Amino acid sequence: MPLRLRRKKKAKFQEIAGRVEGEPTSAGGGSVSASPAPAHKLVFHAQLAHGSATGRVEGFSSIQELYAKIAGAFEISPSEILYCTLNTPRVDMERLLGGQLGLQDFMFAHVKGIKKEVNVYKSEDSLGLTITDNGVGYAFIKRIKDGGVIDSVKTICVGDHIESINGENIVGWRHYDVAKKLKELKKEELFTMTLIEPKKAFEIEPRSRARKSSEGKIGCGRGTLRLRSKGPATLEEVPSETKAKAIEKIDDVLELYMGIRDIDLATTMFEAGKDKVNPDEFAVALDETLGDFAFPDEFVFDVWGVIGDAKRRGL
């Protein structure tokens, strides 16, 4: 069977978002086996990144519920939380809370700080930035390319939440919709963004982890709680180092070809291809699972190469 993907418009991201964020699917469309969220009570700990006491967080099964629980622990509104980092209070985009939470992870919630309005002259087609989102409606800047258009505007920082573009409120948009909006802005014209930076402390002191307690512990702590925007959380084994690196590389390929980073999407693609024997089978499986993205053939070959390398190293 020739390698051929359906040529549908990429604009149909929203129609498949639920498929990507919901239950993972195998190449044949069935559910990937995963343990249901445990009946035991899991207890996590969190602090506000700019400084606070330690709060207990428990009783959640989705990202939205997790943010609500964190907000409740510190008596703030969930809408004040921009995103969370794991095991560091710094704005470290490599340690963002995404779809997985380790049983021993300590969360730091970054809340809204100063609002600012910036004007940007789009001198190039590419603005030189990568956008992600927190899974509950806030898109923010994950990476700024050195020497790019955005890099020249020093008031724009990694970690800034994008609230509006040219006066249009984009709260509730996914990161790929925001990236598409920015890409469609006309070259050689000025545009305006309203940004909210995370609240900062004057000095951040090292924080020790909360006192260990037997309450809420399960197993050896090597598992991860997989969170989803839709559907219940599931307790999964920690992926092998080879698999984790392969998924990270697929995420890099996504950014290269599509201008987005989405670890859940990368994981879905890995699961679709791990049991395939050639790129043609993988292309068919990818088309059945995520066909509406209309990935180019070159992209499929590059992702298959990553999966093939991982399989040769042993998953």
From TrEMBL:
This is PDZ domain-containing protein GIPC2. InterPro entries: GH2_GIPC, GIPC1-3_GH1, GIPC1/2/3, PDZ, PDZ_sf. CDD domains: GH2_GIPC, PDZ_GIPC2. It comes from the Eukaryota. Belongs to the GIPC family. SUPFAM superfamilies: PDZ domain-like. SMART domains: PDZ. Residues 117-184 form the PDZ domain. It holds the Pfam family PDZ.
